[in-house]
Amino acid sequence: MKAKKRGWRFFTSGYLILVLAFIYLPILYVMLFSFNDSKSMISFSGFSLRWYEDMLENREMLESIKYTVIVALIATGVSTVVGTVAAIGLSKARPLVRNLILEINNLPVLNPDIVTAISLMLLFLSVKIQRSIVTLTLAHITFCIPYVILSVMPKLRQLDDNVAEAAMDLGATPWVALTRVIIPQIYPAILSGALIAFSMSFDDFVISFFTAGVDVQNISMYVYSMKRFNPSVNALSTLIVIAVTLILVLANLIPALRERKNKREDT
């Protein structure tokens, strides 16, 4: 039995290592060759920052980064607020209404991106709205909201409704009960929903391609439109990976530090 358990552990550990290697080795490969002195993606000829300098001198790439960040931040902020408020409202609704709206909320998540993209494009054309950064932002807000709702709803199901009602019985207004009782308890879920919304918006191509104007393109559209591969993309990818890693570390580290601080104050 012990030999079988050891063999099973060895198999599962080896499988896990292969999966992680399949996911992360290409990213490490891109990061390594972002410092390559030559354009080759096969042989490393020497350490250099030339592709980072080239990225900073490439106006078109910088414009795409600007549009991507602006749209992602606006879409994340709006979808997080709207999605959180909608989830709180749905948690108080009747089961039939809640289940019906949640099923409708799942449609943009389950639909292929091409269906959502064409639907939004036809909507903008039917109401005669010229495609621009405004339509791009509205489209991103539209498909980000369902992910925030799906992230916040499970946490709301775990809450005790009596806590908010007790706060209002003690004199708290509904707004105070919302901001000081409910939201602090679901803050991790709100943060997770915001991070998912930001990553979905930042990474989107299909919906952006159909809803952006001619003079607007994000990073994914810029890479798609390149006639030849530019190693500066490796530098950009490396900076994105580093930024996302720092955000995730801070998002997990700050709540842990706050919890430790609260425990020390309680003791």
- Into how many domains do the coordinates divide? 2
Helix content: over 70%
CATH fold-level topology of the largest domain: MetI-like fold
How many beta-strand elements?
A: 0
Radius of gyration: 23 Å
Structural class: mainly alpha
N-C termini distance? 47 Å
Residue windows where pLDDT falls under 50 for at least 5 positions: none
Mean pLDDT comes to: 84
Helix-strand pattern: HHHHHHHHHHH
| CATH-level-2 architecture of the largest domain | Orthogonal Bundle
Indicate the CATH class of the largest domain: Mainly Alpha
- Going by CATH, what is the homologous superfamily of the largest domain? MetI-like
Largest sheet: none
Strand content: under 5%
What is the overall shape?
A: globular
Q: Count of DSSP helices?
A: 11
